Amino acid sequence: MDKFDLMRQRHSVRAYLDKDIDSEHVLIMQKAIDRYNKISGLRMQFIENDEAAFDCRMAKYGKFEGVKNYIALVGAKGHDLDFKCGYYGEHLVMIAQSLGLNTCWVGQTFKKSKTVYHAELNEKLAAVITIGYGKTQGTPHKSKKLRSVSDFKESDPDWYKRGLEAALLAPTALNQQRFNIVHNARRVKLRPGIGFFTKMDMGIVKYHFELGAGRENFNWSE
Question: What does pTM read for this prediction?
Answer without folding.
Answer: 0.94
